[in-house]
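Dear colleague,

Following up on yesterday's call, I've attached the two folding results inline so they're easy to grep. Please treat them as preliminary; we haven't cross-checked anything against experimental data yet. The first protein's sequence and structure tokens come first.
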Amino acid sequence: MARAPAPNLNDDGFMATSDPVVLDGAGLRGLVDELRARGYRVVGPTVGENAIVLAELDSVDDLPHGWGVDVGPGTYRLRRRDDAAAFGHSAGPQSWKQFLHPPRQRLWSCGPDGADAEPEAEPRYAFLGVRACDLAAMGVLDRVLSGGAHPDSSYAGRRGQAFVVAVNCTEPGGLCFCSSMGTGPSCGAGHSAAFDLALTERADGADVSYLAEAGSPAGAELLSVLPSRPAAPADTAAAAEAVAAAADQMGRAMPEMDLRQLLVDSRESPHWAEVANRCLTCGNCTMVCPTCFCTSTSDVTDLTGEHAERWMEWASCFELDFTFVHEGPVRRSGPSRYRHWLTHKLSTWHDQFGSSGCVGCGRCIAWCPTGIDITEEMATFSRLAEASQDPADE
């Protein structure tokens, strides 16, 4: 379906597209079943490989009920919660980017008769449990991959028919900093993408309910067929208070200053070399980042040479060959590659796409093998910049 602009919020921080309702466990089950019945491949969080991962759901039972996570720099652990919340966890190693902008896509195929293979139909996804930070990341990818003069038709096809069920965050993790980036914890914050439904989960032991509001006509229509009850003013107020409180519970925060100018002024800082002493240039941060979009292409043939294909694959600016030009890479050193990534993400992204490339999800901190913390690095650059100021100039 065509994507509408992000809806306006009412005074309580929720959408005003339709009257809010409350879903219980049966209502959430009905949501998953109804989406599947309508031909959507429902994708949501589930437990797998000792983490909360995104996968196709067969039923609501596949959600990670009663599971939370403990995270820190270079650390991620599952833990049991004392309730049955399905969305009581922070971001896992995957993002929705992998479904909208897959890690590997075939661009072209040709056999001995010269005929190109028929392109595969774009899947109809329903995303269940999209956090505010990831919704903001979708908004970033929308502008980058489908909002320019030369849109990526594959991305636009997947995105255009996706049904998005967002979840307002009420329990941020230890590495979350979306509040300081203006992208959460409410799903209507910042440059968020449009969504069809928004849920706010309230858990009390085994009793779990969801305040649900529609963000699109399609969402309102779906909500009307689910088992629910009208939301009382107390339900809406309690949900809004829980989301507002989450903004004060973030485990991290970016410095409150002009990060764009800070990085411009810090381009020759010796601190880049200090970071490089810890950075393995492995590219983990770019792989888990929900907004990194760079790709490369490769051509392959079968053993007979009669069938050829061209594939597009994710690439990382930490790869030595990423800037390979005229028999050599432009950025040879680790410091130069890390500086490029961080400066593009927080500074020059504004010039290209009108916003920051960081949404404050904290994935790059958790999944860095050496625990490099993007918020701490920016705080260090801020302290160094303040220390270098001449008091006479103030």
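Below is the second protein, in the same order (sequence, then structure):
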Amino acid sequence: MVDTQYIIKARWLVTVDTQQTLLEQHAVLVKDGEIVAIVPKTEIPEWASGWPVVDCSQHALIPGLINLHAHSSMNLLKGYADDLALMPWLNEHIWPAERKWVSTSFVHDGSLLACAEMLSGGVTTFNDMYFFPQATIEALKRLGMRANIGLTVMEFPTNYAATASDYIRLGTEVRDQYKSDKNISFSFAPHAPYTVSNQTFEQIATLSEQLNLGIHTHLHETQAEIQQSLEQFGVRPLQRLLALGVIGPSSVLAHGVHLDENELETLSIQGAHLAHCPCSNLKLASGIAPVAAALRAGINVGLGTDGAASNNRVDLWQEMRTAALLSKVADQNAESLPAYQALEMATMRGARALGLQDKLGSIEVGKQADLVAVKLNDLNSLPCFDPVSHLVYVASREQVTHTWVDGRLCYQRQDDGQATFAGIETEELRSIALQWQLKLQ
């Protein structure tokens, strides 16, 4: 039976609120999926005196992490084609594999694996982009996660749709079916400037405004993409999308590796958001995004993993640490992107990009109880002088012991390392992975 009201007592509360509040020896009181009080451990109110207690006395309690750019079902292609540049990787390996294998079962099973991996690493919400979105929704609902589902659109046919109009029709049908689900939101996801026409971008911009949906697309990921746009359209991709009405406060732009100073100013003026995916960008040798400059320009930047096919880990702890270290080198400034800012990018800034900042992204009374407990007393984590610094530079997803979504305990790791999920047995997940490995190899 799931407790609808309980108390989490933690060593530290890293709230990620606007005041960067760090509380010691405090408790969070949860009722019906909502944070109803935050008090010192010794001052539990009388009205909650009989509530069950979760002992996190050696832990930091943080908001649920938000993966701002993911292709969840590509977990089935983890390690499928490694050590290749983006366009050969796509054209010669990933797209052919997708043409052969992508189906509702592929997307459902891959999403199950991705959701389990994310939950075990403290990710409670992800911003997805892939085919057969209903299959992803069914998987995430089974494991209890939240998601913004990108309704993928491109010009060329796939196993999912034949034309851009088909993609839009199928996507909006799924949105209509699930639009009342409080844990699911939607955006249009035109894949990239090099796979979507001007006419389709203009149609999406119109529909986005009419249906109040965001737009999630790849942008300026590689130099080759920019050169192709210059040759075909005479302008860089951002300039083209700006003229087509795609860029605005509801836009989440993945990667943004090759943005110049003027383009950063444009994004700031437009209020668009960036999804920084440092590990994928490194693995594909796409480059190092100008994150510090983007933040200085006032752009909201969140963190994403991209798909497991181009990253191999759906792991925001790795992204936080890599983002902070890369920014210091790129900026030639050791003070660039400090730990707290990296944690903000994985929490509150991700929530802001999805328009969910009023309910997610920080530990505050009135917000939904998307919470993560991270154990910081193992030998490799001692001594601990600053828990926020430890979360970014020391901790790993293996130290996540509890992940709550909407107040429900969706993942727990026992002291012996055994993992349990609320919606599925680990042996079923293992069986799914091995069955697909036999098919794909």
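For the second protein, one point worth flagging: The chain is about 35% helix and 25% strand.

Best wishes,
A.L.
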